[in-house]
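To whoever is on call:

I kicked off a structure prediction for a single chain this morning and the downstream step that reads the tokens threw a length-mismatch warning. I double-checked the sequence; it's 388 residues and nothing unusual in it as far as I can see. Pasting both halves so you can look.
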Amino acid sequence: MKTRYIFPSVILGTLILVSLSFLLNIRIRSGLSGVYEESEKPAVSLQSVLDGSYQSSYDQWFSDNFNFREYFVLLFNQWKYSVFEKSGNETVMLGKEKMLYAQNRIQIRQNIDRKRSYRENSVVAYAENIAAIQRGLEKQGKAFCYLISPYKENVYPEYIPKRYSWYWDKGDALPKSLREGLMEEFDRLGVHYYDALTELLEEKDENSPMFFPHTGIHWNYLGVAKTVEGVFQALNENGPFTLPAFELSVTESPQPAAHDLDYYNILNLIGGKLDEVYYHVEPVYQFPEGQSKLNLLYYGTSFGTHQAEFLEMGQRAFESVCRYHYLDHKTRFTAQGSERTVINQDVQASGILEDIALADIVIMENLDSELAGTHLDMAEYLAAGLAA
């Protein structure tokens, strides 16, 4: 066979194979990573055929369910990734050296953070609620710290694609950010807080290990450990308790932790660039004499997930950790295991005031460029509840 016939023959053979397997109802499927809604095969009726809705629905269903679809998706994504250094997933942005970012977070930084998310009145009101929460907790003899977690692009802007990096290059010419607005208000009100971005930028240089992997948008365990250390120090300086000191045992490995690949996995590639080294850690705690292990309540974002995992490593830093993931769910960690409860965005039914009553320490955490609506609701609810 002449070489000019090879390519069209492969295409034709593939189409015949897909068509025959579909007509014979032979299902050949392979899972892809990510979240998607499965479409149901539409029921045929005279009315739906006449008005064209059946044809449209069937076309959508077929495009999601034809045989070998997942393999075609993998091939297409790999082609975009390898040839054009583009992502086949619209939620993932490929930066320099194949550093992965969240597309929407880059847009938040440029559009929302400066125009909608940072509104002076709402930030002032939110900060005042946080200050009221701190006062209420301190009256009960509890410790409080607010953690401002950094977006990955704020720690590593140098990998952002050129079409977006101009924004970060403005430096001091940028208008006030949400993070800067919060810190300004917290300083005015005397709120105890820890700004993780400041610490990570001070630690970062060309020879330092990465605090975020190329393959994920959340900090790795080195970034988590550095932040936990800073939060513990802030609590020691401003609270009635002494948090345990810890030394960190670090192992370098080519094998990533699960969350190191959170965005790499949803690229759905045959093969892509992984980090040369991933960091696995275990803290070794030195608990203060004469003080029992404390109980922690942690309300925050997905970044708090990895902090809770870290606090449960080794000897376990706390007797119990009750971690709220926004108002989606809460998980209580004890020596006996963990128990998860779905909240469904209902702040009053969440039971957080009862959980605070069982805690010695409360940490609230939020990202530096976006203030979630559920955080606003929670702060208002707790400020009123703790003042009662």
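Update from on-call: the warning came from a stale cache, not from the record. Cleared it. Sanity check on the structure: Residues 112-117 have pLDDT under 50 and may be disordered.
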